[in-house]
Amino acid sequence: MIVYRDGARPEAAAARLARLRRLVDRGAVAALLVEAGELEQGVLDAVSPSRDDWGPLERRLRRLLLAAGQAYLAGVRGGNAAPHLDAARAALAHLEAGPLPAVIPIRPPEGYVHYAVDPAGYALAAAAYGREAGAGRAASALVVGVRSIGTSLSAAVAAALHAAPGITVRPRGEPGDRRVVATPALAAYCRGRLASGCDVLVVDEGPGATGETLAVVAGWLASLGVGRERLVVLPSRAHGMPLAPEPRQAWFESIRKFAPPPDDARLARAAARFALAELVDLSGGAWRACVPGAAGLPACVVHERRKSLCRDERGRCFALRYAGLGAWGDAVAERAGRLAEAGLGPAPLGSADGFLVLPWVEGRPAGPAAARDRAFLRALAAYLGARARVLRTGAAARTGPILEMLEANAREALGGRDAGLSAAVRRLERLPEREAIVPDARLDLHEWIEGAHGYVKADALDHGDGLRLPGPADPAWDLAGAVVELGLDASAAAELAARHAAATRCHPREAAEALAAYRAPYAAWRLADALLSMREAEDGDRLRFRRRAERYRRALGAALRAADPAAGSARSR
Hints:
Elements: E1 9-12, H1 13-26, H2 29-47, H3 56-76, H4 82-97, E2 103-106, H5 110-113, H6 119-133, H7 135-139, E3 142-146, H8 150-161, E4 167-169, H9 184-194, E5 200-203, H10 212-223, E6 231-234, H11 246-254, E7 256-257, H12 265-273, E8 277-281, E9 307-311, E10 317-322, H13 326-341, E11 350-352, E12 355-359, E13 364-365, H14 374-390, E14 392-396, H15 400-413, H16 421-429, E15 435-437, E16 448-451, E17 454-457, H17 476-486, H18 490-504, H19 508-536, H20 539-563, H21 565-572
Helix pairs in contact: 1-2, 1-4, 2-3, 2-8, 3-4, 3-8, 6-8, 14-18, 15-16, 15-19, 16-19, 17-19, 18-19, 19-20, 20-21
C-alpha cells in the first residue's frame, strides 16, 4: 500500500545558488549546510539520474559541502566561521562558472524535515570514532554519504575528522531490490583511496524500518574490497529496523557503528533563548500523560516529532516542538503565523535551532460527542474555510499521486475486486482543476482540543506538506477527512460542504462533488497509514491501530458503494 509521497519539487539552480550566497553573507551556517546539501542532491539527481559518477562537477560540489560543514561546526562550537564561509563563497563561484542543469529536483531531507536529525550530533559520533581509531587514521577515512541527507551529514562528519570531502551515492531501484550503480570513474576513485587500507565511514539517517539502504551501500563497498573490519556506519541510532529480515538485523547488530548521543543540546538552547525552563519530554507518546483524557489514544512513536512542554517565569506553559532545519522550518513557522493571524491557533513566540515555540493550548481532546455538537461543527467549518483561504499555494492540485494511491490501496484492501473502485476513480478524474492548499490532513477528533474558549485544532502545521500523502491538495481532502473521521451523515456532510463553499466563494455543487470524490481516496490513504503504524507500533498501540484500520476499511467500502451503488447492489445479491 502507498503511504508516502514523492515530495520532490523543481527549483532553478541559479535561484538556489543565489540563496546560498545570501546565507553565506548572513553567516547562517545551519541553513547553509542543509541547503547546500539539497543543491548537491538536486544537481546529481539531474545530471546522473541512473548512476553515481565522479568527475569535476562532483568534486566541486563536495568542496562546497566540506566548507559548509566546517563553517557549521565552527558556528556550533562558538569558533570563527569566517574562513570557512570564504571557502564556501569561493566554491559557489566555481560552481557558477561551470555548466549546471537549469532546473534541479529538490527532495525533502526527511531527517531535517521531520525527525530532528542534528548534524552536530553526527560530528560528535565522528569524534567518538576518531578517539577509537586515532586522529591519523580518522583523517584518512573515506567518507560515504547516502543521498539525500547524506550530502550534508557526511560533510559534517568529514569536517569533524579533518578528512577529505568524500563521496555520495544514491541506492536505486524498488524496495527489496535496491543497489548502488557506480560509473568506472567512481569505482576507480574509491579503489585508489582504499588502496591505503583506510576505513570507510557510511553516513546516513537510517537504519530505517528495514535497514536496506545501509546494507546495500555496505554490499557495494564489499564488492570494492572493503572488509567488515574497515567498515564503519554512522546512523541516526544504533537500534531499530523492526521490519528487517533477521540476517540483516544480525548484521547491523554486529558492525562497527557510532550514533549521535541521545542528549540534544538544541532543545536546551532553544528554551534558554526564550527564557523557558522545566522541560518535560512529550515525544514518543509521552504527551498522553500530560493531556487530560489522552491516555487511550494511539501513538506511533517512531513517527512522532520531538516536542517538549516547558514554562516561562510566570508559569505559563509552552510547547517546544521540532519544525525543521533550513527553509523547511522557516515554512512551518511562517504557516503557524498565518494561521494565528486568521484566528486559527496560538501565535508562535519564534523559532531557534529548528524548534518552534507555541503557547500551550489547555483542554482535553474532543470525544465522540463532539461530532454531534453544533458548536463543534461550526468551529470545524470555520476552521476549514479559513485555512483554505490563508494557505493557498497558487498551484493546481495534483490528482495523479492521489489516483495512484487510491487504486493501489483499494485493490489490495479489496483483494483485487473492483467493488466500485472504477467509479470512484472516474469521479475523481472528472473534477475540474482546482487550486491546491496546504491541508490540515489530520482531522481526527482527538486532534481538537476542547477548552474554556471552545474548540481549537492542534497539530495543524506539518501533515499537509510533510513526508506522507497528500501534500498540497484540493481543499476537499480536508472536507472528506472531516466526514470520514467524524462519521458525519449525509445531511451533516452536505451542510459542511455548503458552509465551506460560502467561506471560500466556490459554487456549492462544486464543493459537494469534490467532497464526494475525495472520500474514497482519504479512507484508502488512512487505511494504509493505520496498517503501517500497526506494524511499527508497540504493545497496546498495535491494537489501537488495528481497530482504526478496520474503521477506515469500512469507510473505504462505504465510499466506494456511494460512488457506484450498482456495485454494492450486485454484492448484496
